[in-house]
Amino acid sequence: MSRAPGTASSKAATLRLRVTAAAESIIRSGHPWLFADSIREQNREGDPGELAVIYDRKDRFLAVGLYDPDSAIRVRVLHAGKPQVIDRDWWRTRLKEAIARRNGVCDDQTTGYRLINGESDGWPGLVLDRYDTTLVLKLYTAVWLPRLDEIVSFIREALRPGRLVLRLSRNIQEMASEKFSLADGQALFGDRLEACPTFLESGLRFEADVLRGQKTGFFLDQRENRRLIESLAKGREVLNAFSFTGGFSLYAARGGARHVTDLDISEHALTGAKRNFALNTDVDAVASCGHEMIQADAFEWLEKPVKPRFDLLILDPPSLAKRESERGGAIRAYERLAASGIRLLRTGGILAAASCSAHVPAEDFFASVLRAAACSGRQFREVERTGHPPDHPATFPEARYLKCVFFGIR
After folding, report:
1. Selecting from 2.70.40.10, 2.70.50.60, 2.30.130.10, 3.40.50.720, what CATH number does the domain 15-80 have?
2. Does residue 196 carry a catalytic annotation?
3. How is domain 219-409 classified at the architecture level of CATH?
4. pTM metric for this prediction
5. From 106, 196, 289, 356, active-site residue
6. Across the beta sheet with 73-80, what order do the strands follow?
7. Over 50: is that where the pLDDT of 303 sits?
């Protein structure tokens, strides 16, 4: 019988659910979410973070997961198949497995990467990122709040970090504060906390705003695409639109770009880019590369009537579709951005267009950029398509948010 660590369990006390036939099939296929409207019956109300055992129509064990009475995703599945005991050893083993999957991702030149990627690593709604000796734990669901002390103990035991910072999704911050006295940006343990610790990525130094920054402080998921940009940048004039703190720009500079321009609406982000460049002036190529920063709305700036002036242009906007109803508008926006970017490229230029919108499937995103290229009246060739890096696995459709395409413009 599955049971919560340290909690006695009996058949009468266990939270038991039965679900629709369609939900049974979905769970058996490996999908980690059970929605509220798929529950046919349950023996009692459950508490946030309680283990819920799901049975099929023949009263056979189907799966076990974490229950959330306040979410449309009512259960986040931990395990499906044969029954298992969910105890401290089970959690320790699952953490060690996630860490082991990162073998080969990190070395002494890359000390920033993802250690746990939510459902795809068996930790639904939980992310753990490393920035050198600082770890950042981000929770997207309230099911982890009652279990936080226990999870933190496993992390300390397995990884022995210098400090651990808690980041909370907006939808759970009120509950975290009122019921658990937890706050976004809180240090869970460690020595004196720096708001922006530095880390290495491919030998370049970056800051991560772990207390207030987007995601956990940096966009670690674009590492492989940044490396690709570096390989394409030599001798080019580069525009990094939606530049955030200049990650793509620094790689382009080290790759031999003549000049890079960061374009972002946020003064705070551009200030971060300036600091990141300053951290790497010991790299000759970075020190010799011209670096310009423009604070403006990227959509508006890209549509200004100017002559082509760039040889490499990166479009990496924030998510343009946060819900399914915004999908159509997002696809049109991606096409509009690509058309604007192509217009600013000189002959022989390269466009790199990325999307982090989970509600826009890869095929729709790639098609939107292809349409923009075809309508430009210019010859083009597709160079490469990329997806998730190895430390950001995506094992079910809703997890597959990241995609990027590279085009050469003739």
Report:
1. 2.30.130.10
2. no
3. 3-Layer(aba) Sandwich (3.40)
4. 0.93
5. 356
6. 33-35, 73-80, 61-67, 51-55, 15-19, 39-42
7. yes
